[in-house]
Amino acid sequence: DGVERPSNWYCVTAPMVGTFYTSPAPGEPPFVQVGDEVAANQTLCIVEAMKLMNEITAEEMGTVREVCLEDAMPVEFGTPLFYVEPHGAPAPAPETA
């Protein structure tokens, strides 16, 4: 998509072809929104494939920085769904000799 993102952000992608859903059911609030803090393995969305609801989870703790799709959009394998800024340890300060 040509958008520059910080290199430490990770992309959550669709593990299968299906339909992207932001919430557990129509009319319910989304699992996450931009700016939300997420825990490792927290559900971010659902991808429905052949009537099976597959929960897509965060790889690690962080902050949701981008939701790439609208609710109920079709996705292909590898489609970017979210970008998350991890809450890793800060980069070590360079050593001075």
TrEMBL record:
Pathway(s) it belongs to: Lipid metabolism; fatty acid biosynthesis
Gene Ontology biological-process entries: fatty acid biosynthetic process
Record-linked CDD domains: biotinyl_domain (cd06850)
SUPFAM superfamilies in alphabetical order: Single hybrid motif (SSF51230)
Lineage: Bacteria, Bacillati, Actinomycetota, Coriobacteriia, Eggerthellales
Alphabetized GO MF terms: acetyl-CoA carboxylase activity
UniProt keyword annotations, A-Z: Biotin, Fatty acid biosynthesis, Fatty acid metabolism, Lipid biosynthesis, Lipid metabolism
Function: This protein is a component of the acetyl coenzyme A carboxylase complex; first, biotin carboxylase catalyzes the carboxylation of the carrier protein and then the transcarboxylase transfers the carboxyl group to form malonyl-CoA.
Record-annotated Lipoyl-binding domain positions: 9-85
Name of this chain's protein: Biotin carboxyl carrier protein of acetyl-CoA carboxylase
Superkingdom, taxonomy of origin: Bacteria
Pfam families: Biotin_lipoyl
InterPro entries to which the protein is assigned, alphabetical: AcCoA_biotinCC, Biotin_BS, Biotin_Carboxyl_Carrier/Decarb, Biotin_lipoyl, Single_hybrid_motif
GO cellular component terms, semicolon-separated: acetyl-CoA carboxylase complex
Transmembrane segments: none
